[in-house]
Structures are given as C-alpha cells and as structure tokens.
Amino acid sequence: MDLIALESFLDNTSFAVLLVTMLIYWVGAAFPNLPFMATLGTTGMAIANLCMATLLGSRWIEAGYFPLSNLYESLFFLAWGITTIHFIAEKMSRSRLVGAVTSPVAMCITAFAALSLPVEMQASAPLVPALKSNWLMMHVSVMMLSYSTLMVGSAIAIAFLIITRGQKVELKGSSVGTGSFRDRVKQKTTKNTATESVYTSTGNTAVLDLPQTETVTLSPERLSLADTLDNISYRVIGLGFPLLTIGIIAGGVWANEAWGSYWSWDPKETWAFITWLVFAAYLHSRITRGWQGRKPAILAAVGFVVVWVCYLGVNLLGQGLHSYGWFL
Questions:
Q1: Which of 152, 264, 279, 322 is deepest in the core (most CB within 10 A)?
Q2: What local confidence, expressed as pLDDT, does residue 180 receive?
Q3: 8 A C-beta contact, residue 128 and residue 324
Q4: Centroid of chain to Cα 100
Q5: What are the tens digits of pLDDT across the range 250-275?
C-alpha cells in the first residue's frame, strides 16, 4: 500500500471510529449504569488519535515537511490535538460527559476534511517561499495546539451550560473530580408561590402574606457534574491560553523575519488578537473577579465561536498573508 492510499484509508478510518465513539459516549451518558461504555469510548478515542498521528506522520514522510501547509493537514492536526487534550480532560474529570462533548467536535472536523474537501485540496503540494522556514513547525503547531485546547475547554463550558440549563449556579470551591461536595452547589431561581396576595386575619389586624420564594436544587449527581465541568473547563482553558500567547509571539517573530514587520493587522492576526482578548477576559474574570458558573461559561462559549472564526472563518471570508491555499 502506497502512502497516498494509506492516508486515504487512515482519514476515513478516523472519521468512522470517531463516529462510533461519539455514539458510545452518548449512550454511556444516557445510561450511566453501563460502566464498560466509558472504556469503549476511551479506546475509540485512542484508536482515532493513533490513526490521525499515523496519517500526519505519513504526510510528513511523503511531502518532506511538517504537515501543516494546507487546510486538510491542519484540520487533521486540529482533530488530533482535540483527541489528545481529551485524554487530559477526561483523566482530570473522570466523567464520560467529556467524551460526549469532545468526540462530536473531532468527528465533525475529520468528516469535513475527509469527505467535504476536494481531492486536489487534500493532496500535498510544495511549500510557498514564505512557509519554507523552521517557524512553520514552531509557530503553527503551537497555534494549532492552542486552538485544540481552547476548543475543548470551551466545549466543556458549553456542556456546563446545558447541564445547568443556563441558570445561575452557585459554586463553592469543590475539588475537581471527587464528587463529594454534593450539597455545596445550589441553583437559585425565584418564582411566585401564589398568583394573588393572601390576607390572613389576626384579631383586628389584617396581615398581607406576600408571595414567597423557593430554592430549586438540582439533583446531587447533576450538581456534582456541573461543578466538575466548571473546574475542568477552567483548567483546560488555563492550559490553552499560554499556548496561544506563545504562538502569537512566535508568529510575530516569524512575520518580522518573512515580511519585515512584527505585526501588520492582517485579518488572521487581528482575529488571533481578538481570541486572545476573549480568553484573557475569561481568565481575568475567574482569577481576579472570582467568577464561577454561568458568566464565565458564557464567555467561554463566545470564545468557542471566536476560535473558529480565527481558524477557518478568516480564510473563507477574507484574504490576507495567511491565506495560502486555505492555510491556517
């Protein structure tokens, strides 16, 4: 089997395995009494990760350069990064819901790369002069890993919003993955217990009984899961943000070497800066302001969209110095 046939086999296998893995994680989340589903899901993610790593290695051998020169290669590198960060997040959380969130993201990316891109866009091609530099590996790989990490953290934050139904949740410093806090988290909603004011009579005094408020509490299992997701999202984004910072700095150095300017407000550079600001605001709100729960999760959900605009939207909608063949 030649390398091209091997790559075709591996990209389709990655998609198929991730599709099955996604279904396994979803079934496991719906039926938590099936413990073997978590093991099957982890095994599926490992197989997909290995297939994509082999694909990228094969492309590296075939083309003779680090496989991040076009959209096809960068999509598979992104999906590989997501499956890699998945293992870190899953180990920290010990929750199968992490896989239920990360597997569809990785699956959709591989489906787009393997099934939607034209054959000519999947083929390797000689590098343009600006990309013939060691900075291709140093800058682009770090940026792609930061995208993967931030996407995983943001997707987990979106799962938190789903679990808590978008309501305000008060988190009180539980430890990650222990599930022992149980009653430390409360979801507070206010609702009227009566549609009309009720008067009671005490002697000659009429007393107005005002509508009362109730505290609605989620089940202990859901509360434990919400607290875990909040913590894992924070930790994963905390890992991705330094990678993004390093990647932007390395890109500035490479830009100065290639184009004679550290920063030119190219569309990709501008959106990378916007992405940095969004996640800087997220971390600032958590570290300095002490935010937890819904507010930072909404900010992370916005960050999920911004990362995609920075990675893919800029290349689809605009032209710039980073648009080499739909290049990252």
A1: 152
A2: 35
A3: yes
A4: 12
A5: 888 887 876 777 777 778 888 889 99
Q: Where are the domains of the chain?
A: 1-126, 138-183+220-328
By CB neighbour count within 10 A (0-12 exposed, 13-18 middle, 19+ buried), where does 1 fall?
A: exposed
pLDDT tens digits for 16-68?
Answer: 999 999 999 999 888 888 878 888 999 999 999 999 999 999 888 887 778 88
State the SS3 of the chain: CCHHHHHHHHHHHHHHHHHHHHHHHHHHHHCCCCCHHHHHHHHHHHHHHHHHHHHHHHHHHHHCCCCCCCHHHHHHHHHHHHHHHHHHHHHHHCCCHHHHHHHHHHHHHHHHHHHHCCHHHHCCCCCCHHHCCCHHHHHHHHHHHHHHHHHHHHHHHHHHHHHCCCCCEECCCCCCCCCCCHHHCEECCCCCCCCCCEEEEECCEEEEECCCCCCCCCCHHHHHHHHHHHHHHHHHHHHHHHHHHHHHHHHHHHHHHHHCCCCCCCHHHHHHHHHHHHHHHHHHHHHCCCCCCHHHHHHHHHHHHHHHHHHHHHHHHCCCCCCCCCCC
Q: Rounded to whole angstroms, how far apart are CA atoms 67 and 60? A: 5
Q: Are 83 and 48 in contact (CB under 8 A)?
A: yes
CA distance 287 to 282: 9
pLDDT at 218 over 80: no
Per CATH, the architecture of 1-126 is what? Up-down Bundle (1.20)
Closest CA to 311 of 151, 153, 107, 122: 151
